[in-house]
Design the sequence.
């Protein structure tokens, strides 16, 4: 089957996720800068989550651009990823409203790890459908960055119980690594 519907559905779900996240931002009570202070943890969590959701949307867009078709496995793998992404507004609010407390930081990291695992499952489903000699397979390569990110998220969840700020730092570090534009797909498509 064609890939157009899965791309459109994914775009819609991501747009809704970002909309729900922004609704957790409240107008500060007061008119000076001190009124912003109570909202700072919530805002910082929103920024981190917006970046993470944006990274997934960007990578999904590039990835689906290189594939020709989808099947039932790909649809379910994509839904699996979207499920974990759809929890991002809840885990973001939980971490922000509790000012980066240990358990919310660990749960946020668990959600990030599950998103990374969902993305890896989607990659495997697409590789299985398209084979190893396609533009998609060449672009994705061994996906070392994806595997390392998942390992860092898993470690960060455990580390949250030792020092939550190390975990938050690891979440930010992974996001920064992925902010650098991923040229794997564009390089393959240019050839």
Sequence:
């Amino acid at each position: 089957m064609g890939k157009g519907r899965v791309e459109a559905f994914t775009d819609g779900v991501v747009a809704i996720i970002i909309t729900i996240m922004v609704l957790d931002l409240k107008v500060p009570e007061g008119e000076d800068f001190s009124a912003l202070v109570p909202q700072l943890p919530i805002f910082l969590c929103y920024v981190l989550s917006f970046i993470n959701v944006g990274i997934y949307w960007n990578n999904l867009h590039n990835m689906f651009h290189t594939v020709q078709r989808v099947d039932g496995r790909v649809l379910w793998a994509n839904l699996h990823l979207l499920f974990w992404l759809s929890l991002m507004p809840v885990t973001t609010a939980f971490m922000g409203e509790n000012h980066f407390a240990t358990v919310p930081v660990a749960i946020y990291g668990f959600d990030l790890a599950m998103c990374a695992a969902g993305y890896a499952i989607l990659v495997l489903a697409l590789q299985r459908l398209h084979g190893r000699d396609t533009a998609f397979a060449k672009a994705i390569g061994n996906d070392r960055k994806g595997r390392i990110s998942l390992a860092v998220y898993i470690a960060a969840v455990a580390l949250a119980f030792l020092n939550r700020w190390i975990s938050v730092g690891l979440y930010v570090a992974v996001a920064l690594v992925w902010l650098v534009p991923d040229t794997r797909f564009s390089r393959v498509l240019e050839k």
Remarks:
- The first helix runs from residue 4 to 23.
- The chain is about 75% helix and 0% strand.
- The mean pLDDT is 90.
